[in-house]
Every structure is written in structure tokens, then in C-alpha cells.
Design a protein that fits this description.
The protein is mostly helical. It has one domain (about 5-295). The protein contains 13 helices and no strands. Helix 1 packs across helix 12 and helix 2 (about 40-60) packs antiparallel against helix 8. The protein is globular, with a radius of gyration of 19 Å. About 45% of the residues are buried. The mean pLDDT is about 90.
């Protein structure tokens, strides 16, 4: 096997590890928000991850420079992709089921297409319209028929799922707002600065990090924090963007479809989360809608 093929398959393997890690995060995150509120969890998480991302970006590119005229958009990107989305994501993880949350977050590519049309970056096509309708039908099945928790937690479970859908909307908006910056800077540099700038409001909203609190965190909370900071954020994002550069965005998207499956399996194994027929049906409908809307079945 020549070096180019070896490099290609290594990249594919690393992308698979990222999909596994991101799928595991729906369960691992639950351990972190037992002691910590979602905003505080993310403040600590990005307090750890942001310097690592900045260091990696500098070592790979030898520059972290952002022009002043782009700072405003970078701030907007940071608020949407880090402060708002990550807060919603961890809230959904805290209250919703891992299966439902992962399926609803998986809808973000369709939201990206819809926002691209809204901001007149793309034209609406029948494929996107039909795919969106199918995916939203699947989301309705997940939201309305996948609640079999005890009566006392039913309200929280439904609220978590709704927040998961809203989180998916913001994650879909993120690439559209980021697109103009990607013509000037690498995704890695934007992500590193977004982590820094998005962390600042999280610190403010959480009231600052209490050192005494950190000393009293349980081992499961620290494992969740370090897993999310180092593996999910630092390792995952760097490998993902390197993978996009090497094998292309369309091929990388295939791994996105694995994440809900991994999330469901890991949740069943670790926290014994039950899987219901309505979740399977809703999940299949959602993923089919996304695949159809993104042209996966189109060969013309």
C-alpha cells in the first residue's frame, strides 16, 4: 500500500473514531450535568479546550491573525456555535434521552439548507423541500411518540427533546453564518477563536468558575468534562476539519449518519436506556429525509 492510500485510510479511521466519540458524548455528557448546570459545564469545558485549540491552530498554521473587519462576524459565529448551541445541546442532553437528542441534532444539515435559502445563498429546490418535510415528519414521530419515561420525568424528557430540536436549528445556522469567514481563514482557526470568544459569555452567565466547586466534583463529573473538552472538542474538531480537507465534505458527511446509531447503542450499554419502535421509525424517517434532501440518492 503506497503512502497516499495509507494516509487516506488513516484519515478514514480517524474520522470513524470522531463519529464514535461524538456518539458517546450524548451519554457521557449526562454524567457531567448531574453536579453542574449546562452553562457551567460548558464554561469549564471550553476553558480547557479553547487554549488547546488555539495552540493546535498556531502550530499547524503559524498564525492566529483575524482582520478587525471580520471580528464582528466572528463574535456572532462564537455566540451561535458555542454560547447558544452548546448551552442548548447540554440542556437537551441533561433532560432528553440520548436517542431522541442525537436524532434531532442530526437534522442540522437540513436547517443549514433552509437557512442558506433564507439568506439567499442558495435557491430552494424540490429535493430540499421534500427532504425537509420527510425529516420533520420523523422529528414529529420522535417528539410525540417516544416518551416512555416515568410520569414524574415525562415533562422534562419532552422539554429536553424540544430543546434538542432548537439546538439543531442553531447548529444548522452556524455553517451559514460562518461561510464568509471560511473564504479567508481555515475552519480550524475560526473554531479556535470561536471557542475563546464563546467561552467568555459562558463564564459570565455561569457567574465565574468557583475553585471550591471544582475541588468537590466527583470523578464521573471530571471524566465527563475531560472527555468533552479533550476528545469531543479538541481532538474531534481538529480531526474533523483535517478530514474534510483530505477526503472532502461529502464523504465526511457519511460519518454524521453514524453518530445517532452510536449514541443509541452506547446509551443502551452504559445507562441502559431503552429503545422504542417509535424512535427507530422516527430515526429512519429523519435520516432518510436528510439523505434525500442532501442528494445522497441522486446520481444524475
Amino acid at each position: 500500500m503506497d503512502i497516499s492510500k495509507r494516509s487516506y485510510w488513516l484519515t478514514e479511521f480517524l474520522l470513524l473514531t470522531v463519529a464514535i466519540i461524538w456518539g458517546m458524548n450524548y451519554t457521557m455528557g449526562k454524567f457531567g450535568v448531574v453536579q453542574l448546570q449546562p452553562v457551567m459545564f460548558n464554561a469549564i469545558r471550553f476553558g480547557i479546550a479553547a487554549p488547546i485549540l488555539l495552540l493546535i491552530a498556531y502550530l499547524m498554521e503559524r498564525s492566529l491573525r483575524i482582520k478587525w473587519r471580520d471580528v464582528g462576524r466572528l463574535v456572532a459565529v462564537s455566540l451561535i456555535g458555542v454560547t447558544i448551541y452548546q448551552s442548548l445541546f447540554m440542556t437537551a442532553v441533561k433532560y432528553g434521552s440520548a436517542a431522541n437528542t442525537s436524532l434531532l441534532i442530526a437534522m442540522s444539515p437540513l436547517f443549514t439548507s433552509l437557512f442558506a435559502v433564507l439568506f439567499k445563498l442558495e435557491k430552494m429546490t424540490w429535493r430540499v423541500q421534500i427532504g425537509s418535510i420527510i425529516a420533520f415528519l420523523g422529528a414529529a414521530i420522535v417528539l410525540l411518540f417516544s416518551h416512555h419515561a416515568s410520569v414524574g420525568s415525562e415533562h422534562h424528557r419532552f422539554m429536553g427533546d424540544v430543546i434538542g430540536l432548537i439546538a439543531s436549528l442553531f447548529w444548522g445556522l452556524y455553517p451559514v453564518v460562518t461561510a464568509p469567514l471560511l473564504t479567508k481563514y481555515s475552519a480550524l482557526r475560526i473554531t479556535a477563536w470561536s471557542a475563546v470568544l464563546g467561552m467568555i459569555p459562558l463564564m459570565f452567565l455561569s457567574g465565574g468558575i468557583d475553585v471550591a466547586l471544582l475541588l468537590h466534583l466527583t470523578s464521573s463529573t471530571w471524566i465527563s468534562l475531560l472527555f468533552s473538552s479533550i476528545f469531543v472538542t479538541a481532538y474531534g474538531l481538529v480531526i474533523w476539519y483535517v478530514g474534510v480537507g483530505k477526503v472532502g465534505a461529502s464523504k465526511v458527511m457519511v460519518y454524521m449518519y453514524l453518530i445517532p446509531l452510536i449514541a443509541v447503542i452506547f446509551a443502551a450499554l452504559v445507562i441502559h436506556e431503552a429503545l422504542y419502535v417509535s424512535q427507530i421509525i422516527g430515526g429512519i424517517v429523519i435520516l432518510f429525509g436528510i439523505a434525500y434532501g442532501k442528494g445522497v440518492f441522486h446520481h444524475g
